[in-house]
Write a structure and sequence with these properties.
Structural class: alpha+beta
Strand content: 35-45%
Distance between the termini: 39 Å
Strand order of the largest sheet: 1-2-9-3-6
Shape: globular
Number of helices: 1
Order of helices and strands: HEEEEEEEEE
Length: 96
């Protein structure tokens, strides 16, 4: 019985992470357009959030349309994210 419970918990762990990437979560969007949602402003003290060198015009938690592909996110630190076509990328992790 104990082994079955452990296997079940491991299975739920993998299912729960299916749409999770290092920098955030990804969900398909019904209109097949591509969006970015910045959910974490890196503590709020780094100035404006820049996407590909341009100030992000949307509020924290607000969905903004974006082209699919690789994008640079900068606010204090700088990193890259890949956003797939027809999805919404919820960016929430600035760590290493």
């Amino acid at each position: 019985m104990k082994n079955k419970l452990i296997i079940l918990l491991i299975g739920f762990t993998f299912v729960g992470c299916a749409n999770r990437e290092l920098r955030g979560k990804v969900k398909p969007f019904p209109d097949n357009k591509t969006y970015l949602v910045i959910e974490d402003d890196h503590g709020g003290g780094c100035g404006p959030i820049l996407i590909d060198g341009k100030e992000w015009q949307f509020k924290i938690g607000e969905k903004g349309k974006i082209e699919p592909g690789i994008h640079t996110v900068k606010c204090g630190g700088e990193l890259e994210i890949t956003i797939k076509e027809g999805t919404t990328f919820y960016f929430d992790y600035w760590g290493p």
